[in-house]
Amino acid sequence: MHTTILDDLRRALGPEALLTDPADCARYLTDWTGQFRGTALAVVRPASTEAVAAVVKLCAASGVAITPQGGNTGVAGGGVPLGNRPHILLSLDRMKAIRRIDAAARSVTVEAGCVLQQLQEAIAPEGLIFPLMFGARGSCTIGGNLSTNAGGSNVLRYGNTRALCLGIEAVMADGSVVSDLSGLRKDNTGYDLRDLMIGAEGTLGIITAACLRLYPAPVIRATAFLALPDVASALSVLNRLQDASGGLVEAFEYMPAPMMRQICAHHGKRPPMAEPPETGILLELASTRGDDAAPDPEGTPRLQALVTEVLAGLMEEGLVADAVICASEAQRNALWQLREGAAEAIYALKGSYMFDLSLPLAAVADFVAQTDAESRALGFEVYTVAHLGDGNLHYTLAAGAGRDWAALPHTAQIDRILDRVAALGGSFSAEHGIGQAKLPYMPRYRSKARLAAMRAIKGALDPDDLFNPGKTIP
Ligand SMILES: Cc1cc2nc3c(=O)[nH]c(=O)nc-3n(C[C@H](O)[C@H](O)[C@H](O)COP(=O)(O)OP(=O)(O)OC[C@H]3O[C@@H](n4cnc5c(N)ncnc54)[C@H](O)[C@@H]3O)c2cc1C
């Protein structure tokens, strides 16, 4: 039967669309962290929406499951086949076209396999940005970003991927195509399939294209690294900067000393302050207004002068201990390279567990103080990097050099932390999704009613469990 489906796929798509040699398939069948491996009859690489629909129909007819994959940068194991059922891995990596840039409407229609950075470079000459920003942007794809509802460093200002999407085109389990690419800002015609597909991690259909919202490119930025006395001061600092600037804060990223040291050691870089502060914050504001870029009498662009003035006031009040304000694009890039190098530096820690937590903003400071102290007392090292303005903590417990992870009470401490997050009304998966990694937590922390509704949606849209079986829904 497997030879038949492969022959059928070859006939329908052309031989160049199928990879079956294990050496060619290997990089698609292991995730980038090396934690998740799967098997597939073939890696299938359709080049059009019609070809995706043909693949879905052929697989549905022979009961072969489909795992969609974009850039394979996900961290929850969602893009790698799971279980023993015959699978194909459907890679969108040949569907990269930018179909239409509508500069006047500030939207772009793009195929799902387009790499995020390529989209950003293509629209830059129009003076526009697609503001999704994180370290994997050179490899992750729009389809993967939508399917994980990716977040990143600029959510504070622009929202997550869901907020950036005007409509999608997707292939459903029967091979039909739903298309909603007209860029409408308003369309209340019943259930919103776009919102169902976003964050579904490839369990409800294959996203083949999307119409995305664009924003005017900033003409001036103010970027700084701050030392705060403690995490409790952070919210006041953020709110004061927002109020003074009219909401121009784009990033407010927590990079405490242990994390900064680990990033610098891993990438061979220097920290922005000789002695990394316990509560370090990467701050960025951006403005599209020409007068914010105009120099003040000292020659400093107005936005940067404003940020300097606000920070000086916050220092006098004791809410900021120290600040390094970037004086050049090179300094800004150096700071962002440190921030975007965090994920690799964390995954390089042998014997560790990374949480992707979200908490109500008011609960963050006490959570960090309590959990840091408790975890260290148990013998763990703690590495945190956080989209603090969104209450999203990438919180890592590690054994540290020379220590044995297995000898530490990691299962109990992971459970204790997750229970604490739940008690505070937080989430155990802020932006990375469930995939296979977080599956066991779903029945523990999500209600029976919610899981039943998810199963009903899955059953209605994908009755034969064709798409990404075993993922996301326990
Ligand atoms: C260095 C680094 C930094 C990162 N930082 C962040 C961060 O700050 N914020 C954040 O949110 N994430 C972050 N990530 C995680 C990851 O980059 C995102 O989840 C990204 O959105 C995944 O895109 P992808 O194309 O690689 O998807 P993949 O990994 O290929 O797939 C992810 C999921 O989407 C499904 N999928 C992929 N394409 C489609 C499609 N066309 N149709 C249907 N389903 C599909 C897959 O089946 C899988 O379940 C980071 C990763 C790395 C390596």
UniProtKB/TrEMBL annotation:
Molecular function (Gene Ontology), one example: FAD binding
What are the required cofactors? FAD
For this protein, the parts annotated as crossing the membrane are: none
Protein's UniProt keywords contain Zinc: no
Q: Where is the FAD-binding PCMH-type domain?
A: 36-217
Q: Which domain of life is it from?
A: Bacteria
Give UniProt keywords alphabetically: FAD, Flavoprotein
Q: Which InterPro entries match?
A: FAD-bd_oxidored_4_C, FAD-bd_PCMH, FAD-bd_PCMH-like_sf, FAD-bd_PCMH_sub1, FAD-bd_PCMH_sub2, FAD-linked_Oxase-like_C, FAD-oxidored/transferase_4, Oxid_FAD_bind_N
A single GO BP: respiratory electron transport chain
Q: Which family does it belong to?
A: Belongs to the FAD-binding oxidoreductase/transferase type 4 family.
The name under which this protein is listed is FAD-binding PCMH-type domain-containing protein
Q: Which source organism does the UniProt entry give?
A: Pararhodobacter aggregans
